[in-house]
Amino acid sequence: MKKQEITSFRKIRDVITTLFPIAAKRFPRFFPLMALETLCDVLRPFLGVYLTPMIVDGLVNGLPFGRLMTYACILLGGETLFTVIRQLAATALNKYQERLGNYFRERTGEHVMSLDFQLTEDKKALDQLEKANTGMDWYSGGVYGIANQFFLLAGNILKIGGFTAVIASRMPLLLAAVCVYVLISGIMTVKANRVELQAYEKLSKVNRLFEYFGWNIVDFRYGKDIRLYDGSAMLVNKWDSYQNESVGAWKWQAGSTRKYSLVSVVLDVARIVITYGYAGLLTIRGVLTPGTFTQMVESAGGLDATLGGLVWNVTELFKRCNYAYEYILFERYPAALPKGTRPVQNGPHRIEFRNVTFAYPGTDRKVLDGVDLTIEPGERLSLVGLNGAGKTTLVKLLCRLYDPSEGQILMDGTDIREYDYTAYMRQFAPVFQDFRLFGFSVLENICLKDIKDITPADRARAEEMIRKTGLAEMTEKLPKGLDTRIFKVFEEDGVEPSGGEQQKLAIARALYKDAPVVILDEPTAALDPVAEYDIYRQFNELVENRTALYISHRLSSSRFCDHIAVFSDGKVAEYGTHEELVNAPGGLYAKMFEAQAQYYR
Ligand code: ADP
Question: Containing H/E element for 73?
Fold first, then answer.
């Protein structure tokens, strides 16, 4: 228990010392506004505590009307001033809730995109991302919610100091009674919070399911299957049953906290009776003036409310920081790959695989098993082999989406792990089998820049690539040309390119990048063999003097390549020119070529 508490304190410290400076740097006015709001909250009640007794005693003792009015004006004026300033601060603060939320969501997104690729398949990393997202959501209220609790806590500590000083000056015994009351009601709050946390655990699974079903029902991509398989009744029924589960959890929480609420009500009544009774008695005996009576009653009420608030603040701060800490854990998620600092020379590269062996993380099967392969600068190399032979995996290793389990990959004689990661990545323009286009304009998809950063020169280059890849005919027909959005996610008049057009767009994007090594990883599977042959042939002309790797289980790309590496069982089973391999009797390539030859003759 103790250890857990220490950890929680550390979490609070980490959350505050990490997230507050980030928020303050981005929104410098946020914390001063919070401090101003808190200051008004702290000072306002003490105006009454000090001035009300003076007015009451003044009335009883027949103080001149002018003096009484002065007190009343200071009280009212002060209250109004504090209320107005507080309100102005609160209004100014309102917008920060949304802004801070968006800012930290943006940071999470940025972090996700900068994560090592292999973590995007890592269940632990994905879970941490999920926890970071929900942790910074309404469970913690994000930085806004945490800062709010933090300032409430600070304000309440100041108020407690003030009320305690006032009561201790006249009725130290009452102070003791209030402390006992607060202790018991604090215990009740902690117990009720514990129940709430348990209910959260119960609800988090149901909430995840709700979200899943909510999306399935509204997401148009599921529309066809839901209609044709008559799935709506199943989804609605499931929704109902999760709804019942959710209502059950809420009921359980309400039932379990009922007894604590009851104790709190009884305690409240007892506190009022004791305060009024004791202060009244002292007033009748002449120990307190009527004015001090009101002061004591008001201060005891204030102290009680503030102490109750303090217990709530502390438990809330613990709770919220615990949730938000998941975000910090995600930001600190360790990198999966080591990264070097060696600068990369631009230009054609000599690439060498030395005894490269690889199994995907969490698996034992060697997808690549001792691959030796050299790619000379400007060479065209075709990687062929049956599906699952490891060709794409080899490319992923070359692009440092993963690192080899054994062996090494060298670029210009240096282990690729030693190079600066970002500069190294710039050397490759792959078009993967499962490439993705974004729901942005054609132009943005090719340049991968926001429209406002695209220069006329960028546009001209993009147009050139469009022409070269044979897309001009399609883009000329678009209502807004290259500025037409792809897909209908954001705009009614978005264009839905055909499979072949999407592939050409992906190729245009790769050529636009102008990297020294281009890779075409079978992005043409949707095309018929003849069209595929055309694409590879055109592409081969477009890559000019760059190094090019072609992957295809069809052999259309192989004929114009300098060399062909045939993969089988994780190894390079055959290597040579088309002529050499096609004439190797009993060879894998020769067999594959023969089987497919009808398309190429
Ligand atoms: P190819 O490109 O030759 O068709 P791949 O390199 O895509 O083959 O795949 C080689 C093997 O690795 C396949 O058996 C595939 O199932 C497996 N594989 C691919 N990606 C992953 C992954 N992310 N995790 C685990 N296994 C994978």
Answer: helix 65-114
